[in-house]
Amino acid sequence: MEPPEPVTMQALPEEEELARHAPTKVVPIRDVIKKGRLIPFRTIRQDADYVRPVYEEHWHSTYWGGRWSYVPTRIHYALHRLFPTYDIGISGELTFKGNVGVPFPMFQNETDLDLYLVVFQTSVFRLYTAGNQIVVVGAPRRTGVEVVVLKTSDLRPAERDRLLSIQLATPAGDELDYAYIAYMEP
Questions:
Q1: Nearest Cα to 73, choosing from 5, 11, 4, 6?
Q2: Residue 138 to residue 173: CA distance in whole angstroms
Q3: Taking a C-beta distance cutoff of 8 angstroms, is the pair 82, 166 a contact?
């Protein structure tokens, strides 16, 4: 439920590890919006009235052996509004959906790999890509959740050995949130 000893954590250990593999060729968000490629996407869940709960029943330590009850992880998820995942593996899907607390369908596309983006408190307009960056452009809101899906075949990362940097931004290019995820071949 908590770290073994009292400690100040700036990030989860797995988040620090991800940051070490971040792309090295990063350009400003405004440049990705102006010069990047528009990516097609589908919205598979959209609920403008959704309010993120402060606490969910299944986050209690008595559920699933405490799988979702680690306090630093709960705080990490509360601090962010953008969460990426791939549709690979039931266990990963269960863990991801338990953490974000939002059910949505996963399609297990056999000919292409889908990248799912769960976006809270933002109306998503467009997605752009350049190199290893994906910029999700939207308008901030007080409420709401959207789940959008894009095809990994629409991405052309410049550094395949580095992570994808996914940035949630306003139309003016101001960053609202970010996330990293490994690039998976279609």
A1: 11
A2: 10
A3: yes
Question: Residue 172: what are its φ and ψ, rounded to 5°?
Answer: -80, -10
Which of the listed ranges 1-15, 17-31, 81-95, 158-172 does the model predict with the highest average pLDDT? 158-172
Compute the distance between CA of residue 33 and CA of residue 128 in angstroms, rounded to an integer. 6
Separation of alpha carbons 113 and 152, rounded Å:
6
What average pLDDT does this structure show over 151-166? 94
E strand intervals along the chain: 37-39, 42-47, 82-86, 114-130, 133-151, 163-169, 175-182
How far apart are alpha carbons 132 and 112 in whole angstroms? 19
Tokens of 43: 């919205």
The domain locations on the chain are 19-182
Pairing of strands 37-39, 175-182: unpaired
